[in-house]
Write a structure and sequence with these properties.
alpha/beta; Rossmann fold; five-stranded parallel beta sheet; two-stranded antiparallel ribbon; 47% helix; globular; binds BIS(adenosine)-5'-pentaphosphate; binds magnesium ion
Length: 219
Amino acid sequence: MRLLIMGPPGAGKGTQAVLIKEEYQIPHISTGEMFREAIGNNTCLGIKAKDYIDKGELVPDDVTNELVKERLKHEDTKGGFLLDGYPRTLNQAFALDIILSEFGIFLDAVINVYVPSSIIIDRIVGRRVCPSCGAGYHIKTLKPKVSGICDACGHKLIQREDDTEEIVVNRLRVYEERTKPLLEFYNQKGLLINIDGNGDIIDIFKRIKHTLGGMNDNV
Ligand code: AP5
Ligand code: MG
């Protein structure tokens, strides 16, 4: 399956992506994760992206489009993929259409995870992540077995630098202005699936699976 997962910051895209990846055996491609990895490795891309990410602004379209195009050339995407956090602007959506048509492939569905903005700040400010394996936690709703330590690899958990309340407010504004219009773009293509992202993580995943059910025999 070739899927996009969309939604505001903190909607639970990454959390659901881990489950979707496992269920459908497709790579999870998060542009946010790719930028953070580049920042961690101090590459040219990382240095360029850091300025934008630290302010909660979007990395320029040309840089982001090129990154995704290169990633989609990898062999592991042949059986499908899940793009998380891309596209985020109409220009990126147009660029993705061109990339897909060059590769002769189509999207199967665009999953939009929606949550009331009242719970977003709580989710983001309470998020902790493992800098080594990327696993995500929450200080109230998804605690690791040992406080501050990753269950999967034993590393010390950290808070993302853009997860402060001040930056989250800007990320939400940017989402409303630049990313939300894409929902109508994909709705008009008949690809949009709206999923209520409030409630238990597994229940939300079941909603996604149920909605995708008609599209894949393995579900
Ligand atoms: P990115 O990393 O994509 O961040 P984001 O879109 O702001 O989304 P988040 O990762 O913050 O939230 P999420 O929806 O994945 O939530 P999660 O599952 O972690 O992008 C970061 C930055 O990179 C951008 O601001 C931009 O600068 C740049 N960038 C990235 N892509 C770009 C692009 N295409 N173009 C330009 N710039 C780009 O969940 C959040 C928390 O809630 C966790 O703690 C989790 O445990 C908890 N939680 C999840 N689900 C539930 C639930 N059901 N109940 C209770 N808690 C829950
Ligand atoms: Mg994420």
